[in-house]
Amino acid sequence: MFKELARSIEARPIVLLVLLCLIQVATMMGFSTYWSLLPILQPAWDMTNEQAGWLSGMLFGGYVLAVPFLVTVTDHRDARGIMLIGFVLAFLGLAGMALAGDGFWPALFWRTLAGAGLAGSYMPGLKVLTDRLDTSRHARAVAFYTASFSVGAGISYLVSGFLFQYLSWQSVFAVIALGPVVSAALVILLVLPRQPERPEGRQRHALDVRPVLKSPGTMAYVLAYAGHTAELFAMRSWLVPFVVSSFAFHGVANEVDAAVVATTVSFVAVFSSLAGAELAVRFGRVRLIGAAMVLSFVVALITGFAVALPIWIVVTLCLLYALTIQADSAAITAGAVAMAPKGHRGATLAVHSVIGFSGALIGPPIVGVMLDVSGGQSSVLAWGLSFTLMGIFGLFGLACLVWLGRQARGCALR
Predict the structure, then answer these.
(1) Residue 406 contacts by C-beta under 8 Å, 6 or more apart in sequence?
(2) Residue 57 · residue 262 · CB < 8 Å
(3) What's this model's pTM, rounded to 2 decimal places?
(4) Which of 123, 124, 185, 343 has its CA 20 to 30 A from that of 27?
């Protein structure tokens, strides 16, 4: 029965897209749990802002370590099986936080393992999707799939904050760990196995990414993604503490409301990503990415220094920052896929993830250091400088896109 249902789903591209987006959302149920609980965990574990930033970043450290093995091989193996490995790792990482993540060092290990789980589920899921769709459908499919990342992050904020009203933080992690289990069941039952297309020419080793690294057009988008993720995940890592600090300037302390703000920011980012993808089709990816990154820097600069202003202004600026920071996300990833050397889409996604999410690894702790050295979370100057630094990460990505785009002779960016 399930095999017939799986065939029916694969024959309907929209249904397949919706299914894989739902699987991604379920897998990411624990993605924002640490960030949502950070105002509680940081004092409980006696962490500096730098340490809290490293715990944020090490999710992507695990991601970067695992991606070369779990994504590159999808050019040679069915990505469906890799996704199942990712679900197991994600479950273990969340369950470990519930059972043994009591302090900075144990939590660092489990966060790294959870990041490896994300590596095995996110980009392999995109590979499952693009392997089963006609090329003409890739641009919009990539946009919706990457937008589901923000949906998952937002729901994770919301569910984690809600559960914490009734459960201990350990129990919250335990319940959230069921998300990857649900995802595994859906993939096993509803996604049919399928072998990927073979690369052209001489067969290369599964981990050989040289064709990607030698393509300046592809690497332009990859490095742009590094700047984008450094900015995006530094913002997401410190968003709840930022909003809590803003509340504190007005004598209010409510972590649950801060998590609701973070959830709203994530959902706004979904629509921004989808709208950005459509605008990129109409006006060009490079133009859209450039405009979004410049606007994002300006909004970041204003938002950080506005932390002590009335709460409604701070929340409005956070939502505006989410609109600008996420507008180029789908366009950058779609650009990398479009510029991938033929037969090396999996290798391209691996390089895109390793280099791209290296930005997400270092962005949060760098911002944490800035907070520590410039006055801490109670300082307007510290938040202003920290958000300015986030915007600079994005400008770095834009500079790389422009520079490498000029090196792509005879192969204009598209």
Answers:
(1) none
(2) no
(3) 0.84
(4) 343
Using CA atoms in the order 146, 52, 301, 36, what is the torsion angle rounded to 10 degrees? 50
Task: Report the Cα 8 to chain-centroid distance in Å.
Answer: 30
d(CA 221, CA 352): 8
> What count of other Cβ atoms lies within 10 Å of the Cβ of residue 153?
25
Do 335 and 281 touch, CB atoms closer than 8 A? no
Query: What was the pLDDT predicted at 19?
Result: 96
In this prediction, residue 204 carries a pLDDT of 53
User: Which stretches in the chain have pLDDT values below 70?
Assistant: 139, 197-208, 253-256, 343, 408-414
Total Cβ atoms within 10 A of residue 146: 24
* Per-residue model confidence as pLDDT tens digits over 13-71: 899 999 999 999 999 999 999 999 999 999 999 999 999 999 999 999 999 999 888 87
CATH 1.20.1250.20 given to domain 2-192+207-407: yes
Q: Compute φ and ψ for 377, nearest 5 degrees.
A: -70, -10
How far apart are the C-alpha atoms of 325 and 255, rounded to whole Å? Answer: 24
Q: What are phi and psi of 358, to 5 degrees?
A: -65, -30
Cα radius of gyration rounded to whole Å, the chain: 20
